[in-house]
Sequence to fold (77 residues):
Amino acid sequence: MDDKLDKIIERIKIIEDKQDCIINLLKNDIKPDCNKMGNHINFVETVYETVKHPLSYICREINYFSGNKTNTLEDKK
Fold:
């Protein structure tokens, strides 16, 4: 019976060590990467908002001269 209890205790310790490793990865590796991705998304959205209207104007002019009456840069809802 003691041997079985020792094995259970050892397994719990292994599981706790793995859990600590996962928590450490989440705190130190994943979160900064998520912040970087968030910053990148904000950058892309800012650039898009800056060039959207001039690019839309150019597309409208090209479409007008080519006979196509659709605006390809309209925001989709």
Q: What stands out?
A: The two ends are 65 Å apart (CA to CA).
